[in-house]
Amino acid sequence: MAIETKEITFEQEIEYSLLDHGGYIKGNPHDYNREFAIDTKQLFRFLQDSQPVEWEKLCRKHGENVETGFLKKLYRDLDTYGTLYVLRHGVVDAPAKLSLCYFKPASGMNQTSQALYEKNILSITRQVHYSLKNENSIDVVLFINGLPVATVELKNPITGQTVENAKRQYMKDRDPRELLLSFKARCLVHFAVDTEEVWMTTKLNGLNTYFLPFNKGNNGGKGNPVGNSTYRTSYLWEEVLQKDSLLDIVQRFIHLQEDKKNPKKSVMIFPRYHQLDVVRKLVADVYANGTGHNYLIQHSAGSGKSNSISWLAHHLSNLHDKNDKVVFNSIIVITDRLVLDIKNVGGLPCSYVFMALFADVLDHLEWKTGFRIDGIAMSVYNIIAVAMVGVCTGVFNGWLAGAGYVAPEMVDGVTQAVSQSASVQNIIIFGFVGLEVFTGIILTVLLIFLSVEKNIGKKQAEIKSRREKGEGGQKA
């Protein structure tokens, strides 16, 4: 596809920024191995420079075919575990164990780790022809030590194309079966970018590909503000994709939620801009000003508060001050979801009492009949429990619908909070708190008439004696 001059200019400016002050080197598209979807030149340069002893072990094992031999092992590991795992844990090609990436040490006291971190090679390669089937090319591919981690499709509104065209290009013209674009096995994220907005996805899936905005927001609304840089979206390459930033994202932000039963439902979580921003600003403030301060953070519904909290806790747990001393010895997360807390805490003693009484009932039945029915009893219990979940969910949803519940809407990939009526709020409170309290009172009254625990000690002793003697039969 012919590229418009203005789009080339946009591409060149991004490349220049990353090369000039982003910590990258310029990659050559001819060094990209389409069969393995790896920049082999940068891969072997990194391995030989950072781990000469381990590389020598590989040479002794594979001989003249050392590069091909290691590529085959790396290919298998990437296919099995994925890029994220390999970057974090390396590859074992016995007897050699090689790291594919070195992450920044938490403190400045470990000079060896810092020196290895500096050996990482981040490269930007333009117009990468990635397929063995055709000559399609991706505008920009970013590599860490030869492994592809991000693709970028660029559009310039001056040419009549916007970020929407970039998204459609990913959905219609980028086959997710291609190795470079395959979920988990190669690139971790794909950016659709123009001069005004940035959108991202971690999983290409044809027309079903779901993009999330990666914008800063503009005066409380969507999009990006006018800044001091050339474009509204310059923060992507001037800030987010900088060497230290990208390596930190790979090390401590990206998370793979795997579904072992249904791998197609697995999800790669890449932080959105507001999540990166809040975590890094808080960490920077604590580093500069120390502990003992309060912060108020505004997140809308569906914006990933739980992930932001988790990432912040993870970062703070490894934070060292200017004197390389640990800032926090422990991190405690307290939730403000009171209704859920009451429900869960109240369920603990109920579950304990139920199982204790259930065991007494089983002992009583064995004492009375001579038969042990744990398996049948638990099967019946599980069947009833599963069935009742569906029934109760339907009843509860019916109550909500009857009270006028309004479902939240998705706007620009963000779930918008909806103000519910007093009737809906009362039903939710009753369902999570009132109903359980009412049920608990009824069960408490019924327990008065349950007497199986009486003389249970004698019954258990008799059961034990009967088992030892091998006696059967029924107890009249």
Automatic annotation (TrEMBL):
Keywords: Endonuclease, Hydrolase, Membrane, Nuclease, Transmembrane, Transmembrane helix. It comes from the Bacteria. This is Type I restriction endonuclease. GO terms for molecular function: endonuclease activity. The lineage of its organism: Bacteria, Bacillati, Bacillota, Clostridia, Eubacteriales. Signal peptide: none annotated. The chain crosses the membrane at residues 383-407, 427-450. Residues 118-208 form the Restriction endonuclease type I HsdR N-terminal domain. It comes from Ruthenibacterium intestinale.
